[in-house]
Each structure stands twice: as C-alpha cells, then as structure tokens.
C-alpha cells in the first residue's frame, strides 16, 4: 500500500488518504485471502503523489455524492503495472463515496484479483 499525505497535511488533497488507507487495508486483510500481493495506491488529488496510476488498484481523491449530497470521494483505477512492460491504470469507476470504499474494494479484490472471503 502506498499513500500520499492526503488532506490531513496537504492543501491540494480532496480526500483524507493515509489513515483511511491503513484502516481499509487492515480491515480487508482480516476479511480476505489473496492469491498474490495486490499493490493499492491512494492519492488525495490529481497531482498523484501516491502514484495511483501505477497501482494494481489506484484511488484518487475526487468529488462524490451520497444520498444527493456532496461528500469526500475517490476515482478508482485498475491495472497499473511497473517494471517490464509498464502500463498506466485505467479508470474503473468515478465518484465513489469514501464511506463506500470498503465494500467496493472488497468486491474488486474478489472479482478482479481472485480474493476469497476468509472462513469465520
């Protein structure tokens, strides 16, 4: 997981990233078994200090709406690669409210990266 400093320390950021990223990754690691490492990059704004475009999953702070009201949100990118045959991630979804990220990321990890729910 990579994260920029986010709105807590940066005036450009449209979303809080660092604490959210750490909490989300912890929760998802408790819920899911992954067949391989998945690189998740969080960045608070289009300046992309967190390099969202090169992550397997990239999240960029962006406006969103929930229940008709403006809220903190993210664009979700998928498929970034580094190293040999690099490729920039493509937009998967935009305007995702921050409060919906856990469910969205769990679904993406299951459908796109082969994650399985851990037995409880």
Automatic annotation (TrEMBL):
Domain of life: Eukaryota
This protein's pathway: Nitrogen metabolism; nitrate reduction (assimilation)
Catalytic activity: 6 oxidized [2Fe-2S]-[ferredoxin] + NH4(+) + 2 H2O = nitrite + 6 reduced [2Fe-2S]-[ferredoxin] + 8 H(+)
Key words of the record: 4Fe-4S, Heme, Iron, Iron-sulfur, Metal-binding, Oxidoreductase
InterPro entries reported for this sequence: NIR_SIR_4Fe-4S, NO2/SO3_Rdtase_4Fe4S_dom, NO2/SO3_Rdtase_4Fe4S_sf, NO2/SO3_Rdtase_FeS/sirohaem_BS
Cofactor: siroheme
Listed EC numbers: 1.7.7.1
Pfam family, one: NIR_SIR
Domain Nitrite/sulphite reductase 4Fe-4S: 2-106
Name of protein: Ferredoxin--nitrite reductase, chloroplastic
Organism: Dunaliella salina
């Amino acid at each position: 997981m990579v994260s920029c400093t986010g709105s807590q320390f940066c005036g450009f950021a449209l979303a809080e990233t660092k604490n959210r990223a750490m909490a989300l990754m912890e929760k998802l690691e408790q819920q899911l078994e992954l067949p391989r490492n998945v690189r998740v990059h969080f960045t608070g704004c289009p300046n992309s200090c967190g390099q969202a475009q090169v992550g397997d999953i990239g999240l960029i702070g962006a406006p969103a709406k929930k229940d008709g009201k403006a809220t903190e949100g993210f664009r979700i990118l998928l498929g970034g690669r580094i190293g040999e045959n690099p490729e920039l991630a493509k937009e998967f979804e935009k305007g995702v409210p921050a409060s919906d990220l856990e469910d969205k990321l769990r679904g993406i990890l299951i459908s796109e990266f082969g994650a399985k729910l851990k037995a409880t």
